Amino acid sequence: MKYTLEDKMTSLRAVSLAVLLYILGYALKISVLLIDILTPVISNMLIRSVAAGFTGVALSTGLLIVSVNDHSKYTPYIIAVMDAFMLLLVFDILNSSSLNDTVTLSFISFFMAFIGYQLISVFVAKYQRIKTEKEQGLSELLQAYSEKEQVFSELQQQINELKQNTCEYCEREFTSKNALNAHKGRCSNNPKNI
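Structure (tokenized):
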């Protein structure tokens, strides 16, 4: 089966890659904030960066897990708003020098939060659709298997019925058990009749 560029761009794999990149960016944003916060507490820059990095990865991975598995309708909105505020803090909007900078940084922050929200929403929708399609396909296969098993069982029953009305000496079939018994008494292949 040939896949077009459009198929690849709209596949779950492409959306998953975009979500993972978003989560990586989210981890970096959290790390940047944590490095600033941890500066007075941890003086060693390497240890502070490692602590901030691991915490950022853990929190952003948790974000992905919660956003995909939580079925509350408010969770994605809360995450998007928190993402926007986090970007505002990373961009240090409270110390921006002009109104133009404030508007630009605010727009970028809320736009990136919106894109993140949309990415996760699309990912969840695609994942659920593919999961449903696979479950439906499995259900259809099980149904077909059950039907074939029923046919096989009926064929086995017919074979057993034919064997019950078939002479074991000459393999001739009869319509009833009585006709078979009468034939066995005079069958030329029966060793008792020789």
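The chain has a mean pLDDT of 86. The chain has six helices and no strands.
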